[in-house]
Amino acid sequence: MKLSRENSLYLAKIAALALVYLAAAKFGLSLAFSVEQVSTVWPPTGIALAALLLMGYKYWPAIFAGAFVANMLTNVPAAVAAGIAIGNTLEAVVGAYLLRRVVGFDNALTRVRDALGLVVLAGMVSTSIAATIGTASLISGGLVSPGAFSATWLTWWVGDMMGAVIITPLLLVYLHKGLRSSIQGRLVEAGMVFASILVVATLIFAQPPDSIFPMPYVLFPFMIWAVLRFAQIGAVTATITAATTAVWGTINGLGPFAGSGSTESDLILLQTYLLVVSTTSLLMAVAVYHRQRVEKILKLQAEELKESNRRATNILEKILDDSDEQLSKAESENNHRIITGS
Fold first, then answer.
1. Which residues of 241-278 are buried (b: 16+ CB within 10 A; e: fewer)?
2. What is the pTM of this model?
3. By the 8 A CB rule, do 25 and 47 touch?
């Protein structure tokens, strides 16, 4: 049976998304420590949620396939891998559904309710589904003891939450043509802003934990600079730059969040900091976006008013010119009558 072009394209997209999810999952699992299937750094959640928001619910099989294969590669029983994959799939589907139905989510992230909905509904609520089903699957498969449920669940939830809060807005903003245009023509300034963030983040998170300099709040003025100048693009780019540097440093035992315990507990502390950074940046970007929009509207209105004044002036000048011409003609005719005595 020959597939239609539409079905072939759909299957091709399913395969491509599954491969992207699998690659991101392999990266996330490489940062798992106490449990091989649980990581505090989990980009696939953000990729899956963004994919469903952009492409629709019908692409859920790609998430299931990617998650199932990724977990099978960790040598878990097929039933456990399937359970984890079901949790990951439901997480993305429920997250997208809640955003669409509860807040009427706009992919451009230009409203406060969009930013808060992403953080709360997708970042905190729907991720609990994957954490619960995944942890229960590991326990049922004998890979985690029942007594470790809370610790495993927390690690899973934090990793998925940060994937939704950091990766999803990054993909939504960069794939939105209207938002990408805000950086066009200002690449030099953008390079300076994000290079500064990278340098400062490196100074903070590449130092020993007991160093004087590692003060994470030093990064905030540079984050604000990025958001004020580039709104949503600035927010997501600054956040991913800071997050990547911070995770690298913490995993290597560097920065202000390292050395407090195990690597996983250090990463959980770091993710709390990154949650504040990401949420604050997104909310500030909304305010900046609307300020820029109001400025554009006022500028357009000023130009329209200027054009209206110009047209009114031209009309008035024409009326005056016509009046002067008529008056001169009348005076000329009157003088002619006087001279001729008529």
1. bbbebbbebbbeebbbbbeeeebbbbbbbbbebbbebb
2. 0.85
3. no
